[in-house]
Design goal:
By secondary structure, the chain is of the alpha+beta class. It contains nine helices and 15 strands. It has three domains: 91 residues, Helix Hairpins; 100 residues, HSP40/DNAj peptide-binding domain; 92 residues, HSP40/DNAj peptide-binding domain (Sandwich).
Length: 375
């Protein structure tokens, strides 16, 4: 023979049938016309196909090793796309569809589940422990996941003989094409449950309600998801459980607004206290505490209380509590109060104070002028 089929596939002369198949599939992925349309590559693809057709057939390989013509009894087969063309091996090289996959297991992983957990601000800030009731699927206590009634076992499927799939050979312009599909009788399992468990109806699991204790770490916030591995539903056939995800929902607080790990609140103080200064008791997550209001404090001023916010998630330390000052102006005065304020205004020269705009602000006419000028 002029051609060395072993050299074409790059294998030894004593290579096993499995080594022949692996070598061909590797080369087919590189040289297939759909991947590499170059004419020289197409000729190379025909060569490896012809070599594989000979070396994968024990009778043709024996005749080839003895120096005979392996195609003497198969006129016209050659390297073309005839009846012997290894279409299934090419499909397997590209898609992994060739050969028998075998029956699939009845045990499959269970689904994940999500549970909403409503928490107060103090619970999200410092962490807590909760007992949660979960409606989920657990292993059937009667059949322990097998799905069969007591004293029975699954029977081998008589349609696929336990392979889990059936094969069909059809002829096309490419030659004989073998396709495989899951067995319609056993669903691809290779066995049939003739007498299912009366409690789970063959599913291997039942639904029930159970209680689990979970620890909520400090620092979680609204929308945080906590994954509890293996706490979800048991899979069909007694398969492994999925995961349970806790979705944190933080209830609004009547005093504090949370921004990240910082807390914000507003403290109302009288005009006189803002002018003279005072001490105010404020609420914190750690209990009541006193803060100093300095003389001359203004509305909008912020007094920070460091380390009085929410604990950092998975880190040490805490955020801050930001106290926003709001100065209240009295809207009702008696005669004595009004007289005292008028005397104070006289002493400060503020009986008819000139209007002043703060930096960056404009009067009405300035804003109107600028609006017209920009048109």
């Amino acid at each position: 023979m002029a051609r060395d089929y072993y050299a074409i596939l790059g294998i030894r002369r004593d290579a096993s049938a499995d080594e022949v198949k692996k070598a061909y599939r590797r080369l087919a992925r590189e040289l297939h016309p759909d991947v590499n349309p170059d004419p020289e590559t197409q000729e190379r693809f025909k060569e490896i196909t012809q070599a594989y057709e000979v070396l994968s057939d024990p009778k043709k390989r024996e005749m080839y090793d003895l120096g005979g013509d392996p195609f003497a009894t198969a006129a016209g087969a050659g390297a073309g796309f005839g009846a012997g063309f290894p279409f299934g091996d090419i499909m397997d090289a590209f898609f992994g569809t060739g050969g028998s996959r075998g029956p699939r297991s009845r045990a499959r992983r269970g689904r994940n589940a999500t549970l909403r957990v409503d928490l107060e601000l103090a619970e999200t800030a410092f962490g807590t422990t909760r007992e949660l009731t979960v409606d989920t699927a657990v292993v059937c206590p009667t059949c322990t996941g097998a799905g069969t009634a007591a004293g029975t076992h699954p029977d081998t499927c008589d349609m696929c003989n336990g392979r889990g799939e059936v094969q069909q050979v059809t002829r096309s312009f490419l030659g004989q094409v073998m396709t495989s599909r899951p067995c319609p009788q056993c669903g691809g399992y290779g066995s049939v449950i003739r007498t299912p468990c009366p409690e789970c109806s063959g599913d291997g699991r039942v639904r029930t309600r159970r209680t689990i204790k979970v620890r909520i770490p400090a620092g979680v916030e609204n929308g945080t998801h906590i994954q509890l591995a293996g706490e979800g539903e048991i899979g069909p056939g007694g398969g492994p459980a999925g995961d349970l995800f806790l979705e944190i929902v933080e209830r609004p607080h009547p005093l504090f607004e949370r921004q990240g790990d910082d807390l914000h609140c507003t403290v109302q103080i009288p005009m006189t206290a803002a002018a003279l200064g005072t001490v105010v008791t404020v609420e914190t997550l750690d209990g009541p505490e006193e803060i100093d209001i300095r003389p001359g404090s203004q509305s909008g001023q912020v007094i920070p209380m460091y380390g009085r916010g929410v604990k950092h998630l998975n880190e040490s330390g805490r955020g801050d509590l930001m106290i926003h000052i709001n100065v209240e102006t009295p809207n009702k005065l008696d005669e004595e109060q009004e007289a005292l304020l008028r005397k104070l205004a006289l002493l400060r020269g503020e009986e008819r104070p000139p209007g002043k705009f703060a930096p960056g602000q404009q009067g009405l006419f300035s804003r109107l002028r600028d609006a017209f000028n920009t048109r």
